[in-house]
Amino acid sequence: MLIRLFFLVFLSAPLTLFAQEKSFSNRSAFNQSDQSLISYRTILQQTDKEFLWFVSDQLTLSGMNLNSLFTDLGWFYLPNVNKPSKAQQQQHDLMLTAGLLKLMTQESSYSSLATSSAESLLTNAVNKGETDQLLLSLIPKYQQVEQLRKTIVYYQLLSAYPWPTLDVNFQPKLGQSHYKIKALRNILTRLGDLPRKMQTAYRRDIFDSVVIQALKKFQLRHGLTVDGKLGPNTYAALRVSPEQRIKQLQVNLWRWFTLPKQPDKYLLVNIPNYQLSVIEYGKQVLKMKVIVGDRDNQTPQMITKINQITLNPTWTPTYNIIKNELIPEYQKNHLSLKRKNFQLVKGSRRAPQYREIDRANMDLPELLQSYRLVQAPGVNNALGNYRFNIPNNQSIYLHDTPVKSLFNNQFRALSHGCVRLEDAGLLAKYLLTLEGQGNEGQRSEGQRSEQKMLAALNAGNTKYLSLNNDLPAYITYQTAWFNQQGVLHFSADIYALDNKSANPAQFQTVNSM
Length: 513
Hints:
This protein is of the alpha+beta class.
């Protein structure tokens, strides 16, 4: 109800007409001597228009939608002008056009086009009266995009009022009445964690069970310890202003614009949320916890696919892992690597040559000039029973792990960069069901693949299962996201990437966690 009320206020506000550049990453984008002005003039000439987005001193519906999108993305600051002059209309018209062309040609955008193609597409859309359809085609259809845009509007309305000040040293007790509690309840009410009907004049200064439950809801949404207490991390999150959250939401909104158009089925790993989801036709059908790279070995964002499952995989550690972890371990106990089934291997996969690591004082750095250090399949193997290949040039893959206890940790940026799965077997079975979808022959192939998988797992042999139906896989970085119930959550910016986003909107650090 609160959000609906704010939307009504927003929609009834005076229409903003005059645009000024706020925060494009390339400030020359609106320099009147650059390509944007040339493109704008060319399109005006080819469409025989005075303005592309104005009629009778008013923004067209397409212009309003475009204006709204750029406001949500944080590209423009738009002061209100009741009667814009011709010069002001022209400036706004130019900026909307330049922004649209930038959106269409942005290298990281899923709709990326060459400048000439973007100009041609826009010209045709104007001539045919199809600018709304063009804009819709450029907005990703992911449900999170719509949810983020609505939330940005809501936080923009929140930002119109001073954010209550909190005393971080104040520690109220249950049942205590104090004027400082009013600010806390005010924040929790504005953010929707405390129902407005519970914020009565009589209760507004009391720290009661309702406030504690609201605090727990707030903590859950912000990835904090859910204890209903006002610890330093909870206070820090409560003090984040709507202006700061808007910038965070805008960066996360742009990240959805960098993904391909939504496929029917895809796998999504959200790094800061430590979660893997499989989405079918917009619905989550599978989810599990994951472990991602630590700050020194960050899991990269990527657009790829799962095209192969390796059962009972071997593990060939990277040079850094060998140098920094395994060789020191061997030097402390020369049998430690042997106990973990490590061997020195050279030659091809079909004709390998092995050498055991069973003596002290072996010169491993020298031996590794001609051998590879490989861990054989088994209970100690770092990759567990499954490895999922995702084509990329950074040696990143998804895999099982024998150490399941780490999934109980709240902070799970612990790996060397690859993604460890809580239930790799469940993902493997799902991928094989995709092999069995379609005609009878495909179902038979899927059943045979599952039988092969079970046989290989039981035998302990390394087996490679290529997938006929690749599953698109997106490894993303979303610090603001919505769960399946549509509730907004924030995750800690574990790699401090929000400040370095490729989003054209630039903003200050959001220190919320």
